[in-house]
Amino acid sequence: MSVLKIGGGVALSAFRLDKLNAAIRAVEPGLTVTAGRFWHFVEVERDLGADERATLLRLLTYGEGCDDPAGRAVLVTPRIGTISPWSSKATDIARQCGLGPIRRIERGTVYGVAGDGDLTRVVALLHDRMTETVLPSLDGSDALFHHFSPRPLTHIDLLGHGRAAIEDANAAFGLALAPDEIDYLLAYFGELVFNASWVIDGEPRGESLFGMIRTTHQANPQGTVAAYSDNAAVMEGRTVRRFFADPVTGRYGFEDDLTHTLMKVETHNHPTAISPFPGAATGSGGEIRDEGATGRGSKPKAGLCGFSVSNLRIPGAERPWEGPASKPDRIASPLAIMIEGPIGAASFNNEFGRPNLAGYFRTYEATVGGTTRGYHKPIMLAGGIGNIRAQHAHKGEVPGGALLVQLGGPGMLIGMGGGAASSMSTGANTADLDFDSVQRGNAEIQRRAQEVIDRCWALGPANPILSIHDVGAGGLSNALPEIAHGAGRGARINLRA
Questions:
Q1: d(CA 203, CA 5)
Q2: Chain centroid to CA 199
Q3: In Å, how far are 1, 83, 184, 341, 423 from 177, measured between CA atoms?
Q4: What HEC string does 140-155 produce?
């Protein structure tokens, strides 16, 4: 294997360059970014022929041309150990163009930094620590393609070390286990969800937390097809004329069908708090997957997003009541979340192919009795509605020997950290674990997965999907128990984008 390094065009528009330099002047006035240039890194199995190299160069020639920026060079690449969404698309295009020897293409940006000053003070402004890596030179880009053997299975010695074993794992992996959850694991070695018993003001409650939530539905079930039992709720619809492609002929047409409405709202507070754009993007992406993975497959239609943060403290427009900011350094500012979060959510929705039609934004912070309270741990809310055929509203029985299919992009070491950190108080997790809950929003791959689901449910009674579940926080460690626990509810098609 070898890695080709091919220079590209301008990476920063004049507007983005001015905005970046304004931020740099606030922390290190002596430094200025002169320009940013794309560089492409291509892992090949053998030397390319003349025609293959010419095709590759044509593919990687786009946008405005650019020479190497003046000043000290800073190379920013996708985070080592991950595959960027851009890479997935570019590699696929190259292979479709006959470039079989190419294993993978990645893209980085070289920034030129001029002036005298401490370069380390501005590096944080040049990259997103959650999704990107700063490398010392172009030669360092070979690290993007290092291949490692799978890590061995790790065991937690409960019998030998008892509670301390779980406490150590809780801290090391950022699992966000509460003391009572650790007690539960020690006692039952099981999975703790909402069905645990709980105590209020020292008095045990007869129903579980989830049971208490369900009482509303039990008291007023009218119009409900499914609630608290699947990835999204389903309410009764009516017979409508649906327009979709025939899975056999590929021709679009109308079909009268009893169709229900499904809906879902969830939060994705972390890592939106750390990295607003990719955090909010994958928040919307996860909610979309929940819609598609309802029943035996359904159709996401429209989305919403919302954000709750503390005082904005807009530079140059601070308000008298706002006071000084107080948050861990790695937590993004409320203003950054307000600006970048909605763009991230809308970006994923748009690229997936559904509109983000509604949302909200709220700021709140107040000092009462000497204690300042607010949305220091911000809320990112993602939701949406979709359609599902009545015949597919419930997951089916799965016989022995049924196939389990995982559909989508690579899982990588993501999911668990984000899911657990969402349950923690702001700043309670270590910075390294916060940034290790890396997100990879790939709306195009998710759209392709949804197209497969669409072709399946369009078959009506012949739908091959018996049960479906998305792979979200916790990865397969979350999805597989869903299969193991349901010999009768069965296997699922698992989605990862």
A1: 66
A2: 34
A3: 43, 30, 10, 28, 9
A4: HHHHHHCCCCCCCCCC
Pairing state between β 356-363 and 299-309: parallel
Q: Which residues contact 403 (CB under 8 A, 6 or more apart)?
A: 491
Q: Which residues contact 493 (CB under 8 A, 6 or more apart)?
A: 293, 404, 405, 406, 407, 453, 465, 467, 468, 469
d(CA 399, CA 20): 57
pLDDT means per 10 residues, the chain with 497 residues, are: 93 94 92 96 95 96 92 93 89 95 96 92 88 89 84 75 82 70 66 61 76 80 88 94 88 94 91 88 93 95 95 91 78 92 94 94 90 89 96 89 83 51 48 56 90 94 92 68 44 43
* Amino acid type, 164: A
Closest CA to 282 of 443, 85, 80: 443
Task: Specify whether the CB–CB gap between 154 and 169 falls below 8 A.
Answer: no
The owner of tokens 């078959």 is 459
CA neighbor of 407 nearest in space, from 451, 345, 346: 451
Dist. CA 427–CA 256, nearest whole Å: 53
Name the token pair of 47. 């030397």
Dist CA 279 CA 267 (whole Å): 11
CA distance 251 to 495: 26
How does 193-229 read in b/e, with b if 16+ C-beta sit within 10 Å?
eeeeeeeeeeeeeeeeeeeeebeeeeeeeeeebbbee
Confidence (pTM): 0.77
Query: Can you tell me whether residue 282 is helix, strand or coil?
Result: helix
Spatial distance between the Cα atoms of 451 and 454, rounded to a whole number of angstroms:
5
